[in-house]
Write a structure and sequence with these properties.
about 300 residues; alpha+beta; L,D-transpeptidase catalytic domain-like; 2 domains; 7 helices; about 35% helix
Length: about 300
């Protein structure tokens, strides 16, 4: 009796230490040792999920699939985005000289042919750019052999901001009005490349002193692309031509006349009562200036 109890105890300890044998069911279910409770393999219970638990478990997978599908759709939409020549940049240039080295040969050939059809020499002896804000046009004139202004090119102004009336201060989003020089070239602008406008001029500074206005603003450009605040956005193909044309002519021989509109044909959309008297006087001088330029729109 003692032996059996001792044996039973020893076997119990042995099987507890080797319980994996029971997990693999090496011993049959009818084994006499099952009464010790060491060889019975519990039947696993199947977990039960409620509808809410199922939805919560599947939600991350559904979100991931939707995200992947949206990215595919976005990529496809980007691939179908139409080509925009006005903002497309073939390459960037580190300087005016590098830009002219690349751009000048094909552009110059086009301009030479165009000037020849007008019986004009290229490059011209001088150049005038006439900007009409309300019409959104920039016209390029050069003198003929008799000194008369001849229309060479007409460009749409793709982007500009503000209303009729001069620029008075930084942040007013106005395009200047008056008589200006071109005083430089830039290739370090976001809008591809640009001609620098010498704003403010002496007249702008004089009126500002009289009216005790400070911070007149600056950095006015004729540039590429199609978006602008206070500048003239011409699109990239147009600015390439203007860049080469002004460089070949010489920036000191180029001038810019900025008008609210074609003052020979219409009155500007401006209330002169809300402006200083010099604004109306400036527009009168601009009207007389425009008489020199044929084929205005």
């Amino acid at each position: 009796m003692f032996f059996l109890n001792r044996s039973s105890f020893s076997i119990e300890v042995l099987f507890k230490k080797c319980s994996f044998l029971c997990d693999t069911k090496i011993l049959p279910e009818t084994s006499p040792f099952n009464n010790l409770g060491i060889c019975q393999t519990p039947t696993p219970e199947r977990p039960s999920f409620s509808l809410r638990q199922t939805v919560l478990a599947l939600t991350p997978i559904i979100v991931l699939l939707l995200f992947l599908c949206s990215n595919v759709s976005l990529s496809a939409a980007e691939q179908k985005k139409p080509f925009d020549a006005e903002t497309h940049i073939k390459r960037r240039f580190s300087s005016k000289e590098e830009a002219l080295q690349v751009l000048a040969p094909p552009v110059r050939k086009k301009l030479q042919t165009l000037f020849k059809t007008r019986n004009l020499a290229y490059p011209p002896g001088s150049l005038t750019l006439v900007g009409l804000k309300e019409e959104k046009k920039l016209l390029v004139y050069a003198p003929d052999r008799g000194g008369r202004k001849t229309l060479i090119l007409t460009y749409p102004i793709i982007g500009l901001s503000g209303l009729s009336g001069p620029k008075l201060k930084e942040g007013d989003k106005q395009v200047p009005e008056g008589f200006y020089e071109i005083n430089g070239f830039r290739t370090d602008v976001i809008a591809y490349m640009a001609l620098k406008v010498a704003y403010p001029n002496a007249e702008d500074r004089l009126h500002a002193r009289e009216e005790k206005r400070n911070n007149l603003g600056g950095d006015i450009l004729i540039h590429g692309s199609r978006w602008s605040t206070g500048c003239l956005a011409m699109g990239n193909p147009a600015i390439e031509e203007l860049f080469v044309l002004v460089a070949d002519t010489g920036e000191k021989k180029a001038r810019l006349v900025l008008c609210p509109c074609n003052l020979l044909q219409r009155k500007p959309q401006i209330d002169y009562k809300k402006h200083s008297a010099w604004v109306a006087a400036l527009h009168k001088r601009l009207t007389e200036e425009l008489r020199q330029y044929p084929e205005l729109p």
